[in-house]
Amino acid sequence: MRRAPVITIDGPAGAGKSTVARRLARRLGYRYIDSGALYRALAWKLARGAAPGTPLADTQVELVPRGDEVAVLVDGVDVSAAIRTPEIGRLASEIAADPAVREFCSALQRRLAAGGGVVVEGRDAGSVVFPEADVKFYLDAAPEERARRRVRELTARGEAAEIGRVREELLGRDRADRTRTLAPLARIPEACYIDSTGMDVGEVVERMAREVERACSTIS
Ligand code: C5P
After folding, report:
1. Which of 32, 96, 171, 216 fits a 20 to 30 Å CA distance from 11?
2. Pairwise CA distance, residues 35 & 122, whole Å
3. pLDDT tens track for 176-189
4. Residue 217 domain-assigned?
5. Hey, which of 9, 20, 123, 185 would you mutate to test ligand 1's pocket, going by the most ligand atoms within 8 Å of its Cβ?
């Protein structure tokens, strides 16, 4: 029997991928895979003092559904909140250029997606990890809007955030993600491009759901 669909959402930092992917997954009754959380989880372990070069095979990263959220566990420790800082984001981007790290996170994503029925968000989900995905999206937004959204997110968590610094952090991470040799962030031609500048989450999810319906009704 054919597996259930795999849907990928790639795009730059702060484009709204997580919010949209979570909502789209809920709407379709699929599982949501936040691949950035896997890179952040490894960065967290490194920041906590794991020696660089610690065998990745000794690390256990889990995504555990909890109500509407997905908890991130590293070696059994819940790091869901701790990995959401700009520092961990920067370190995640740094280690994401390492082939062993990419292999670890890609293999884990494929295991988590076994059987299909998933929405995966990341940077290379459609281009490298799931080249055979049924529907691929590239979600974008203007840098100012992405920075504003990220500031709102940080402020809601009670963290101080200055828009200029947030914007620089996002753009710096994008530069690193776009220019690395291995699995760089890129807008692939077969991905459905959505510029979410000026759109609200509901509109983006609606547009994606229609595209999934259209694409999946023509899959034989
Ligand atoms: O998506 P998020 O901002 O949480 O990702 C953190 C970092 O992890 C990104 O800046 C990127 O360097 C890396 N990443 C990646 N490939 C993915 C997901 C995230 O390289 N599929």
Report:
1. 216
2. 5
3. 999 999 999 999 99
4. no
5. 123
